[in-house]
Amino acid sequence: MKIKVSKLTCMSLAVAALSLHSCGSKQQAPQATAPSLAVLTVQNTDSELNHNYPATIKGKTDIAIRPQVTGFITKVHVDEGQAVHKGQVLFTIDQVQYQAAVDQAEAAVNSAKTAVATAQLTEGNKRHLLDKNIISEYEWQMAANQLSQAKAQLSQAQAALTNARKNLAYTTVTAPSDGVVGTIPNREGSLASPSSAQPLTTVSDNSDVYAYFSLNEKDILELTDGGTKSLNEAIAAMPPVKLTLANGTKYPLEGKVATVSGVIDNTTGSASVRAIFDNPSGMLRSGNTAQISIPVSVRDAIIIPQKATFELQDLKYVFTLNDSNITVTTPIKILPVNNGKEYVVTEGLKPGDRIVIEGVGTSVRGDMPVNPVDHAAKATGAEERQAQ
Questions:
Q1: pTM of the model
Q2: What's the domain count of the chain?
Q3: Which of 171, 178, 34 is nearest to 101 (CA)?
């Protein structure tokens, strides 16, 4: 027996099958779960931050050692980096020609002294004859003039001797102060001259060192409270400053800002600042680079981790949570000074606000449901898992 199935019946069966398939698909779709992320409830707090500035270290005195006479270097008595004392011999310049000049000048002085003695005898004899009216006054005056000339020549010879002895002394180059010897570009056999562009070396007094850095116009205005107090008052009130060396180590002694230039450089828009540090161990050397840190006390402010922020078009944002635990993209403003790990928020947040501090910049986005986890509890749990 054949069963006839109408077209309407077939269509009804197809629709029913599609409906069943659709319902089955909806039942199988997994429900999206909100991620568990660390959340921080912000509060007002106090903190110590630092203004950091690149600095250049210079000795208390950096004296370029230049010869006073021209000649070949016969001996270098010190080495680079050696500590020297005032008056210590650094270089010896060939003395032969200068010793010869001294010998010649001494001979000239002796000759001039003999000439003076002879002229004195002549003048005395002429005066005796003049007193007896044996000779004219003219003859005596000629003898007196010759005596004056001889004395002048003696003075000239003595001046030449003094100059020659001084030049001979200049062949021994000594340290003008206590300090440390810098680079020595010229060695034995090199020609030394006062007109040379390069000095023989440099002696730096590093018992105290100066750290030079720059403050821009805005920094100076903040330092003087917008000009309400003088620069000297501001410097006197500044706290001790710290120094971080090029390898990241902290210099153990604190320094003090001593001076701020009274003129702002038109090319850089900044003023030069000098801080002074004791250097008893000689750790700091002239020419070192470092970083100056000026501490800034922040009171009753909202401080958040830098990792909780992201930047968009030069603006800072955080993800706050509303009452439904949905993320809200919130713009904030911060102080320009920070410690490299945290920001001080000046606008955009208030005490009690909750911000996401995990996954910002990677997985978190706006209008996203979150399962908030207290950041302290999450950190404790992570430490316990590591301990196991």
A1: 0.61
A2: 4
A3: 171
